[in-house]
Amino acid sequence: MKIAVLTSGGDAPGMNPAIRAVVRAGINSGHEVYAVMDGYAGLVSGSFEKMSRKSVSEILAKGGTIIGTARLKEFNKLEVRQRAINNMKEAGIDALVAIGGDGTYRGAKALTEMGFPVVGLPGTIDNDLACTDYTIGFHTALETIVDAIDKIRDTSSSHQRCSIVEVMGRYCGDLAVSAGLSCGAEFIITPEHPMNKDEIIERLKVHKSEGRRNAIIVITENVCNVHEFAEEITQQSGFACRATVLGYVQRGGSPCAEDRILAGRMGAYAVDLLSQGISGVAVGIQNSKMVHYTFDEVLSTPNESMQDIYELAAKIR
Ligand code: ATP
Predict the structure, then answer these.
(1) How far apart are alpha carbons 64 and 39 in whole angstroms?
(2) What is the Å distance from ligand 1's center to 78 Cα?
(3) Active site: which residues (predicted)?
(4) Cα–Cα distance measured from residue 154 to residue 24, given in angstroms and rounded to the nearest whole number
(5) Cα separation of 233 and 231, whole Å?
(6) Sign (positive/negative) of CA torsion 127, 295, 291, 54?
(7) ipTM of the assembly?
(8) Cβ–Cβ under 8 Å, residues 207 and 186
(9) Residues facing 96 on adjacent strands
(10) From ligand 1's centre to the CA of 107, what distance in Å?
(11) Contact assessment for residue 146 and residue 113, using Cβ atoms and an 8 Å cutoff
């Protein structure tokens, strides 16, 4: 079989180990493997490169994705996807492994519905996909965030400040709640568990009156304007407050061991599924076991895998 592999949407640490696993497991199972450059854009332009065992050596520790990623809005058009399928058929490609987030899965589902076999791998730091406990990249990004918040706490405490730290996640609070728990954040604000601003300010006043030197508020992006919120806290709570938006630093860096292993398991599992003639599904990990669900199931199921972490963060605050 000829298998193509692409990375799409936002890059995530661990995409390279996932590509490596697909290439190595594919070749070791007797398949040919092709890399598609720059996500769905490379499918549409017919940008394929035959991979060898050597083309993926020394990439396990590299951040980002060596085959590039892109966002191609036009991929929601039938004629654009048809061009992609025609290009793959012309190159003799039988199946595709698509590594990315929910948008990538929507594109993969659309290709599946047009009769082309696709298996998806969850590659996003946001952990915002259902039917998997973790996505590839989540743990590395979490380590980066925890390291940053610990550092911010040092300066915050020295200056007796309140610090708001905005983290990624799009509309999913998994990174914020996990980082908040790990750093002992005084407040964790996520789309799933928003907090009343007045209540936060009241609690900060009490905090200050108890002689506490600093407070950390971890918040998911897209919840509010953190700089305006910092100003409100400064005006009303007695704490000088600063906001830090961590930004793209969270997506970069060498993948941690957990992400490398997860990516390896998922990539090899995707090849096994295709070898068995199974496609139209996305790979996940649940209770340490590899699982697969249809794209429809993943895209229509609420993502609630971190509920217990939120409760724990509240319990041991
Ligand atoms: P991240 O979680 O990092 O944002 P993502 O995979 O969700 O990753 P998107 O930009 O949302 O990133 O999607 C990646 C690509 O998938 C899009 O640029 C587009 O090419 C394709 N895509 C998204 N939605 C659809 C859709 N409804 N139909 C077809 N293709 C889609």
Answers:
(1) 13
(2) 15
(3) 126 (proton acceptor)
(4) 44
(5) 5
(6) negative
(7) 0.97
(8) yes
(9) 4, 118
(10) 6
(11) no
Write the burial class of residue 46 (CB in 10 Å: 0-12 exposed, 13-18 middle, 19+ buried): middle
- 51 CA to centre of own chain: 25
Ligand-binding annotation for 104, yes or no, is yes
- Which amino acid type is present at position 41? A
Q: What is the 3-state secondary structure of 263-286? A: HHHHHHHHHHHHHCCCCCEEEEEE
* Choice among 11, 126, 174, 259 that is catalytic: 126
Please name which of 133, 105, 103 lies closest in space to residue 121, comparing C-alpha atoms. 105
Pairing mode, if any, of strands 281-286 and 118-122? parallel
**Per-residue confidence in pLDDT tens, the chain, 317 aa:** 999 999 999 999 999 999 999 999 999 999 999 999 999 999 999 999 999 999 999 999 999 999 999 999 999 999 999 999 999 999 999 999 999 999 999 999 999 999 999 999 999 999 999 999 999 999 999 999 999 999 999 999 888 899 999 999 999 999 999 999 999 999 999 999 888 899 999 999 999 899 888 999 999 999 999 999 999 999 999 899 999 999 999 999 999 999 999 999 999 999 999 999 999 999 999 999 999 999 999 999 999 878 889 889 888 88
| CA 93 / ligand 1 centre spacing (Å) | 22
**Is 264 known as a binding-site position?**
no
Structure tokens at 13: 């640490």
CA-nearest of 71, 68, 59, 64 to 5 is 68
- Which sign, positive or negative, has the C-alpha torsion 190, 191, 196, 197? positive
Burial of 309 by CB count in 10 Å (0-12 exposed, 13-18 middle, 19+ buried)? middle
pTM of the model: 0.96
| Distances from the Cα of 172 to the Cα of 93, 167, 193, 240, angstroms | 35, 10, 10, 28
Six-digit token pair at 71? 């966002």
Residue carrying structure tokens 């609420």: 302
Angle between helices 226-237 and 197-209 (to 10 degrees): 50
Helix, strand, coil percent content, the chain, rounded in steps of 5: 45, 20, 35
